[in-house]
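User: Run a structure prediction on this.
Assistant: Running it now.
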Amino acid sequence: MNPGKVYLIGAGPGDPGLLTIKGRDCLARADVIIYDYLANPVLLGYARPEAERIYVGKSCGKHSLPQDEINQLLADKAAAGLNVARLKGGDPYVFGRGGEEASLLHQQNIPFEVVPGVTAGFAAAAYAGIPLTHRDITTSVALLTGHERPERKLSSLDWQKLATGLGTLIFYMGMTNLKLISEKLIEHGRAADTPVAVVQWATLPRQKTLTGRLDEIAEQVAKAKIEPPAVIIIGEVVRYREELRWYDNLPLFGRRFLITRPRAQAASFVALLQAQGAETICIPTIEIAPPDDWQPCDQALGQLGDYDGLILTSANAVDALFDRMSVLGLDLRALAGVKIIAVGPKTAKSIETRGLKPDLIPSDYRAEGVVDELLARGVSGKRYLYPHTAISRSLIPDCLNAAGALVDAPIIYRTLAPQDKQEMIRHLLESGELDAICFSSSSTFDNLHAMFGDELHQLQGETAFFSIGPLTSASIRKRGFEVALEPQSWTLDALVEAMVEYYPNP
């Protein structure tokens, strides 16, 4: 059997957007993903569903698997003919022990490839607003580890040269030895008032940056309780931070939101929030399932050409419709001559991804808006197909049928409450770690309430409830809760804009 190949991939410092395109493509092809503590688990979403995932994370004092066993695991998986993605925080060859892994693979004749990543020191500086070099201050940078083997105790570093011969110093894994590092540099000639920045959780919305003098920084860090993972940046370039900081000036920086949409539909919402600096936690309170019986839907789809209009009121309905058409061997030609009505811009966009443009998008993005627009155009004698979820209101078929239309309304999907999310949400609420929960439909709130019942009133604490629109807000208020925010326009873009206005500038 020919061996597979190992890809040593730098996952970057935390922000999933900093993964390289090549790294993403290697993940997508891999049979096995072996990943670290500092590799953002969001990146596992690029892997194939059937790919094996193995966590080998190491944090301070806690090793799920010793390094030599990790090395051999890579070799064994590849020797079995599998393509292996070794996902490592930062860059594999910058304090990532990638060299040790590659050496063993070389010794055992296992093919490997290194995919560089954005190293934490460079990213921490950029996201903290610190240029590591500046023509007016320094043209040299040193990358150093502040956590060598215990028996060496940093003794191998040339403190004299570090103190006086180099401009910017970046220490990885140096938090435990920060006091010693500071003392050694001052002892060998670095000025006591040299500015220092300590950047914790760099590039993530939980990023914290503390600045101070070299002779005071260890005490300040202890007082602020800043712990690993963190990068220490020492040098005059740190003075530029107040002028050049950008990341922690984003309007939603430091805010944490729970997203309750189904994971497949949450990506665009998450991207909008992260662009504003927010941290998002996706725990869906609804899951999409097929109908109990496909027969009514299949019967309607078998006569698509007989309908005057097709009414679609959600992206889920769009996906379910076209997926079922594919199962039945139907393509876009089956919709020839059928007018397509989309309830709003998000539904319209989903339709457009299928190669069609809606004929009608009402200005009121609700069922009421669909009814008003169609009645204004006349529906008597016309036939409409309205594939919907099992919990949809009957407003559209009731009103159109009453006006002389014939509406077939088969159930094309169901929304269910997940069975394994309650404890995760309980922990977030009890710990007070959430600024708000965002509800994009009535069912996302109703299912959350069903998980906890009246206990939700006690669990909510200071967590705000944000609603996408009036129907969702009505469901929230019906249970006795306050809606802290509802946008004027009932779209995710409008909700994010309203959230930015809701919070004061950081």
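The chain has four domains: 6-117, 122-245, 256-286+417-502, 289-415.
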